[in-house]
């Protein structure tokens, strides 16, 4: 198995709310990126196939990649899913359960600012259509700043909520903001998740960590040239990488701020290393 680009998307829209706009691609850009993936000779494989390889199973085919989507924006249902279905492409959608609402009703609450999000009927429909539904906590917090009781609610209880909705086990998880710690990763494993996705802005590799899978965040300003480099297995480091001093220092700062009730940053801060 060579390096594997695991692409991370959020919203795919022409008119996103301002807070998510930097992390949004247009439908035309998304279609162009799928065309670039195909032109590069990459095959889009299910996330579970990569996870199996990372856990000692058969290696994935050379020139493979994975599509993932975070948070649960409604445009996944209306814009992304029809394209994936037409092309027969697999993807994993990580859902923040507190942002999902009953049809016609309000969500239970999350730290995400207002946006058009999926409803529970759409989540179950996507699951039935073959989209892998993964966990992304209940409220989208910075998990590595939370006490143990909150971790249980965000990781374990949200998993049960998803499993009750789709009537089967949920195996995949993604850390909000990309943030995790050894304690958070232990809790994710204890909850029964077999994989967890970080960000890291790196290519996955045969030595990557199943509970800290590296992804490449596709943003509004991701150029066609940079995306093309990623599809060639270039333009980003290969995971795993040691946690940087800067990342550890940033975690200590965020924990100190959280202890005083003032966690720093907006809804889409991401760990890069």
Keywords:
34% helix; disordered C terminus; 15% strand; signal; globular; 10 strands; TIM Barrel; single chain; 273 residues; Polysaccharide deacetylase family protein; eight-stranded parallel beta sheet; alpha/beta; two-stranded parallel sheet
**Major sheet details:** 8 strands, parallel
End-to-end separation: 23 Å
The domain count comes to 1
Order of helices and strands: EEEHEHEHEHEHEHEEHH
Radius of gyration equals 17 Å
Mean pLDDT: 93
GO molecular function, one term: hydrolase activity
Protein name: Polysaccharide deacetylase family protein
InterPro entries: Glyco_hydro/deAcase_b/a-brl (IPR011330), NODB_dom (IPR002509), Polysacch_Deacetylase (IPR051398)
Domain NodB homology: 63-273
Layout of SSEs?
Layout: E1 6-9, E2 11-12, E3 24-25, H1 27-39, E4 43-44, H2 47-54, E5 64-71, H3 75-87, E6 92-95, H4 120-128, E7 132-135, H5 148-166, E8 172-174, H6 182-190, E9 195-200, E10 213-217, H7 224-231, H8 245-259
Parallel strand pairs: 1-5, 1-10, 2-3, 4-5, 5-6, 6-7, 8-9, 9-10
Subcellular location: Secreted
Organism: Kitasatospora cinereorecta
Enzyme class: hydrolase
């Amino acid at each position: 198995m060579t390096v594997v680009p695991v692409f991370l998307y959020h919203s795919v829209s022409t008119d996103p709310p301002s807070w998510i706009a930097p992390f949004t691609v247009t439908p035309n850009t998304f279609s162009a990126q799928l065309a670039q993936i195909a032109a590069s000779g990459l095959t889009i494989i299910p996330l579970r196939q990569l996870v199996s390889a990372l856990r000692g199973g058969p290696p994935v085919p050379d020139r493979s990649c994975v599509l993932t989507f975070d948070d649960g924006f409604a445009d996944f249902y209306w814009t992304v899913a029809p394209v994936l279905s037409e092309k027969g492409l697999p993807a994993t959608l990580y859902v923040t359960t507190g942002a999902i609402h009953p049809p016609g009703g309000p969500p239970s609450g999350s730290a995400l600012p207002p946006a058009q999000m999926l409803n529970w009927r759409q989540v179950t429909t996507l699951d039935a259509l073959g989209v892998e539904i993964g966990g992304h906590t209940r409220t989208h917090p910075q998990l590595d700043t939370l006490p143990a009781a909150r971790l249980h609610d965000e990781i374990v209880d949200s998993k049960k909520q998803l499993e009750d909705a789709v009537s089967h086990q949920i195996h995949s998880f993604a850390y909000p903001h990309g943030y995790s710690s050894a304690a958070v990763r232990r809790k994710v494993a204890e909850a029964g998740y077999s994989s967890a996705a970080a960000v890291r802005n790196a290519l996955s590799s045969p030595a990557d960590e199943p509970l800290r899978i590296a992804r490449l965040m596709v943003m509004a300003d991701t150029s066609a040239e940079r995306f093309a480099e990623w599809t060639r297995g270039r333009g980003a480091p290969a995971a795993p990488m040691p946690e940087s001093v800067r990342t550890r220092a940033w975690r200590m700062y965020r924990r100190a701020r959280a202890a005083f009730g003032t966690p720093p940053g907006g809804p889409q801060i991401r760990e890069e290393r």
